[in-house]
Design goal:
Helix content is 38%, strand content 28%. The strands form two sheets. A five-stranded mixed beta barrel has the order 3-9-8-4-10, surrounded by four helices.
């Protein structure tokens, strides 16, 4: 099975390629869901892949995923794609305009989470990184059980779904979702955790490919 791994920036790509499984191509797709979707769609149009993985660092919700830890998405959620209404926020699915979440193959995602020692839970795709306690609380209330937030997963998943290709999202937690405090970020530790995670993935991918 050929695997496409999509990261946002070169530092994430380099962390993945240090331990990348055989048969995987690693792509820098850019920051945000639109760039990630465009890059993923272009790559899928050129090469047949059996799996797409959105990978990189992100924020962890403190109640679910500690800084320096890992998260594998159970759901890849467009967390702020919708509309504010007098009755509150409504996502695009509630508005009747499309879908707001993608579901990775559960057996594969759970096995991957177990193999790399990750939290298994929803990962939110946001267009604006959370920087206040109020925003963090709003997202946590709107998406119960959310484990992490990042900026590309839903875009990658949307492009993959249009081609009928399954998707995973793997995030290493560099900071807590909440007030923006760069002095508390642990980007180096998160990138090292990402490398470690991809070093442990090959048996999982080989096993899943054999049963797919």
């Amino acid at each position: 099975m050929r695997v496409l791994v999509v990261t946002a920036v070169p530092a994430e790509r380099d962390a993945v390629t240090r331990a990348c499984p055989a048969g995987a191509d690693v792509l820098v797709g850019g920051v945000g869901p639109a760039s990630a979707a465009a890059a993923t769609a272009t790559a899928l149009a050129r090469t047949p892949y059996g799996l797409v993985v959105s990978a990189g660092i992100g924020g962890g919700f403190p109640s679910a995923a500690p800084v320096g830890g890992l998260v594998v998405a159970s759901r890849i959620v467009a967390a702020d794609l919708g509309a504010d209404t007098p009755e509150g926020y409504r996502d695009v699915e509630a508005l009747g305009f499309g879908r707001c979440a993608h579901l990775p193959p559960e057996p594969l995602a759970r096995e991957a989470a177990g193999a790399i020692g990750a939290v298994y839970g929803p990962v939110l795709t946001v267009s604006t990184v959370t920087g206040t306690a109020a925003r963090a609380a709003e997202l946590a209330a709107r998406h119960p059980g959310a484990a992490a937030e990042a900026m590309e997963g839903f875009g990658v998943a949307e492009a993959a779904a249009q081609q009928g290709v399954p998707v995973l999202e793997i995030r290493a937690v560099s900071n807590a979702v909440g007030p923006r405090d760069r002095s508390a970020w642990r980007i180096g530790d998160a990138l090292a955790a990402l490398t470690d995670a991809f070093g442990k993935l090959p048996p999982v991918l080989e096993s899943w490919n054999g049963h797919d």
